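B., you asked whether I could sanity-check this one before it goes into the benchmark set. Here's the sequence:
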Amino acid sequence: MTSLEHIDLSYNELEEILTTPNESFPLNLTVLDVRHNKLEALPLKELLKANLSRFDLSGNMVKNFSEELSYMIENGTIIEIYGNLCSLNF
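And here's what the prediction gave me:
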């Protein structure tokens, strides 16, 4: 799975995305689309390891975004967050 660059998990009614210490997102992942699910939180620390150019988590149920999101924005990641129950905490 090292050559995987784009993951589209949109419209799947996902409630969470879990990673374990031995798992993470592919380092060469550039696009992650998880829009229109039921996500309330995301493993942002694990996502920081990937080289995302686009991250779409619009239309979920995320309430708070942490400082990790600001690092992603500073690194040039385009992030779609509309349609969440969110507040930005950075």
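One thing to flag: The mean pLDDT is 87. Otherwise nothing jumped out at me.
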